[in-house]
Design goal:
Layout (H helix, E strand, L loop, with lengths): L1 H14 L4 H22 L15 H12 L10 H18 L15 H21 L4 H32 L6 H6 L9 H25 L11 H4 L9 H26 L9 H22 L7 H10 L1 H12 L3
Length: 328
C-alpha cells in the first residue's frame, strides 16, 4: 500500500496541487490581474464582462478555444505536431512542481535545481519550435526572435537560480531545501549575512529581467508583436492549439513568479501548511505587481536593443551573483 500511496501522492501533486490545476487557476487569475493593472496604468478598463470585475474572462477565453472553436490552420501547418509540442510543454511545467516544497509529496535531491532548469527550459523550446515549424513568415519571424532572445535570457535564468539556491541551501543545492528550509543566517555573522543578501538581490534583479523576457512581457514582447508580426509564433494557430499555447504561457509565468518570489523573499519559507501557502501567494502577488508595473511602464524595444539589455544587465548580474554565492 505504501508504494501505491506514494504514487497517488505524486500524481496528486502533479495534476492538482501545486501542479496542473493549481497552476492553471493561478496563471489565468494572474492574467486577469495583469490585464486589470495594465489597464489602470494606461487609463483603460480591462476585462469586465465575464464574472465579477471580469475575473472569469481568461477562463472563458481558454475554454472557448479548447472546447468550442475548431482547429483551422494553413495547408502546410503541422497542427498535430504543434498541439503535441504544446502539450509536452504543459506537462513539463506541471512535472517541475514536484521539486517545490508546497506539497507534502514533493521530491527533492542534491542538485535538483538542475532538473528544474531542464524541465522548465522545454517551455521555451516549445515556443521556439511552434514558430520555427510553421511555413508562414509571421510565425517563423516570431520564432526566430524568440530563439534569439532565448540564447540570452536562459543562461541568465539558470545562473541566477543556481546562485540563489546556493545562497539559501549551500549544502545541497536543492530547490526544495532553498524554498522550504532556507538557511537564513543569524545577525551574529554579519559578513556571511551581507554576502547572502547581496546574492539574493543581484540574482533577484537578474532573474526578474530574464523572466520578463522569457514571458514575453513588455518591453520584451517582440516575438508576438501584433503590429509587426501579427502575433508572431501564434499567428497561424486557432482553436485547441491556440488555447494550449495560451495555457503554456500562463502556467510558465505563474511557476516562475512563484519560484522567484519565494527565493528573493525567503521568509516565511514555502511549506504545505495553509499559513505558509497563503504567505507564498502573498509574496507572489507582491512580486507580480512589481513586474507588471515595471513592464507596462515601458514600450516595446527592438530586437537588437533587447539583446543589448539582456547582455548588459541580467547576464552579468547572474554571473556576479553566482560568484558571490561561493562566499556564503
Amino acid at each position: 500500500m505504501e508504494p501505491l500511496s506514494a504514487v497517488g501522492g505524486v500524481l496528486l501533486t502533479v495534476l492538482v496541487f501545486p501542479g496542473l490545476v493549481f497552476l492553471v487557476l493561478l496563471g489565468l487569475l494572474s492574467q486577469w490581474y495583469r490585464r486589470k493593472l495594465a489597464a489602470r496604468l494606461q487609463n483603460r478598463v480591462g476585462p469586465k464582462y465575464v464574472g465579477p470585475f471580469g475575473v472569469l474572462q481568461p477562463f472563458a477565453d481558454v475554454y472557448k478555444l479548447l472546447f468550442v472553436k475548431e482547429l483551422v490552420t494553413g495547408p502546410y501547418t503541422p497542427a498535430r505536431a504543434i498541439t503535441y509540442v504544446m502539450s509536452l510543454g504543459v506537462a513539463a511545467i506541471a512535472t517541475s512542481v514536484l521539486l517545490l516544497p508546497l506539497s507534502p509529496f514533493s521530491i527533492g535531491a542534491e542538485y535538483d535545481i538542475l532538473v528544474f532548469i531542464y524541465l522548465t527550459l522545454y517551455a521555451s523550446i516549445a515556443f521556439a519550435l511552434v514558430g520555427l515549424g510553421s511555413v508562414s513568415p509571421y510565425p517563423g519571424l516570431g520564432g526566430i526572435r524568440y530563439t534569439t532572445l532565448m540564447l540570452a535570457f536562459e543562461p541568465a535564468i539558470a545562473l541566477s537560480l543556481i546562485a540563489a539556491v546556493r545562497a539559501l541551501a549551500p549544502r545541497s543545492l536543492s530547490l526544495r531545501d532553498a524554498l522550504g528550509q532556507p538557511e537564513i543566517l543569524a545577525p551574529g555573522d554579519p559578513y556571511r549575512m551581507t554576502v547572502q543578501v547581496l546574492v539574493l538581490i543581484t540574482a533577484g534583479v537578474s532573474l526578474s529581467i530574464a523572466v520578463l523576457a522569457k514571458s514575453m512581457l513588455k518591453p520584451f514582447d517582440i516575438p508576438e508583436a501584433e503590429t509587426e508580426v501579427a502575433g508572431g509564433y501564434l499567428a497561424e494557430l486557432s482553436g485547441p492549439a491556440l488555447g494550449l499555447g495560451i495555457l503554456l504561457h500562463e502556467v510558465e509565468i505563474a511557476l516562475y513568479v512563484l519560484v522567484l518570489s519565494n527565493l528573493v523573499i525567503p521568509i516565511p519559507p514555502a511549506a504545505p501548511d495553509p499559513l505558509n501557502i497563503l504567505a507564498s501567494l502573498a509574496k507572489y502577488v507582491v512580486v507580480l505587481t512589481i513586474l507588471v508595473v515595471v513592464a507596462y511602464s515601458m514600450g516595446r524595444v527592438r530586437l537588437d536593443q533587447a539583446l543589448r539589455l539582456l547582455l548588459r544587465i541580467p547576464l552579468p548580474l547572474s554571473v556576479l551573483s553566482l560568484a558571490l554565492s561561493f562566499f556564503v
